[in-house]
């Protein structure tokens, strides 16, 4: 039983490491695109999401943010397979809609991180 517990811990540590790496990778990709859009000073604030974060009160903005995030999920490899829909990035997209930069972000993401058909090796970017 002790050996089995060791293997379980090993797998858990591996899973945690993989998740952290994936999160850092996703954040890094978003950051690169935001920097390209000229948000050098605001990039960390734009990516910062916490319990106090609120969505735009403008329902149209919010709906647009959802639509654009879906486009990112469908047409880019910004999010590695199996990471699921990362709701924190809906906040970021909502902010970008308010700043009138969301469409440019999606366009750059599609250029920089296009979804590779059948090829899931996305950590090469």
Descriptive notes:
The C terminus is likely disordered. The protein has one domain. The protein is an all-alpha fold and 125 residues long. It comes from Sphaeramia orbicularis. This is Melanoregulin. One of its GO terms (biological process) is melanosome transport.
Any descriptors?
125 residues, mainly alpha, 0% strand, elongated
Write the topology of this structure:
Blueprint: H1 2-36, H2 43-47, H3 59-75, H4 88-98, H5 102-112
InterPro entries: Melanoregulin
GO biological process, one term: melanosome transport
Pfam families: MREG
Alpha carbon gap, first and last residue: 42 Å
Shape: elongated
Total of domains: 1
Number of helices: 5
Q: Which percent band covers the strand fraction?
A: under 5%
* Number of DSSP E strands: 0
Average of per-residue pLDDT values: 86
Task: Provide a brief overview of the structure.
This protein is mainly α. It is built from five helices and no strands.
């Amino acid at each position: 039983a002790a050996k089995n517990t060791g293997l379980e811990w090993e797998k858990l540590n591996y899973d945690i490491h993989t998740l952290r790496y994936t999160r850092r990778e996703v954040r890094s990709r978003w950051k690169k695109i935001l920097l390209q859009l000229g948000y050098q000073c605001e990039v960390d604030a734009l990516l910062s999401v916490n319990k106090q974060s609120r969505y735009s009160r403008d329902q149209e903005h919010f709906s647009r943010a959802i639509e654009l995030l879906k486009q990112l999920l469908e047409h880019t490899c910004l999010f590695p397979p199996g990471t699921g829909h990362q709701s924190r990035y809906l906040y970021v997209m909502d902010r970008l809609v308010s700043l009138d930069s969301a469409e440019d972000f999606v366009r750059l993401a599609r250029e920089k991180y296009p979804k590779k058909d059948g090829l899931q090796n996305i950590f090469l970017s």
